[in-house]
Known about the structure:
The chain is mainly β. Helix content is 10%, strand content 27%. A hairpin with a 2-residue loop joins strand 1 (15-20) and strand 2 (23-28).
Amino acid sequence: MTTSSTPSAREPGAEVQIQFEGHRYAGVRGQTVAGILLGNGVRAWRTTSAGERPRGAFCGIGVCFDCLVTVDGQRDVRACLRRPEGGELVTRQHDLLPGRQGEDADNDC
Ligand code: FES
C-alpha cells in the first residue's frame, strides 16, 4: 500500500527526466536530482563562494548543503533530497560571500 500521494511514490521505476545545462538527463522516478546527475556522469553542479571550486554531493543526506542548485527558479534546493517529477530545469547556483563581491579569493569554504 502506498502511503504517500507524491507521483514519485505512485510510479516507482518509471523514467523521469531533468534538464541541466542544455542537456536532458534521465533517471528512475524516485531518484534525487543528485542521483540523476551522478548517474549520468555529472559530478559537480555548484561552485564554492570563495575560490569557485566545483562541488556536487558530499553527504548525500541533506546535512552539508554542498549540493545546492536552483530548480525551476527556486534557489537553495538540496539536490540530494529533491525527487523531481519530470521536466524540471536545474541550474547551477553560485554566490559570492557578502562583502567579497569583486574579490578573487584564494580561500575556500
Ligand atoms: S550532499 Fe550534503 S546536503 Fe546534499
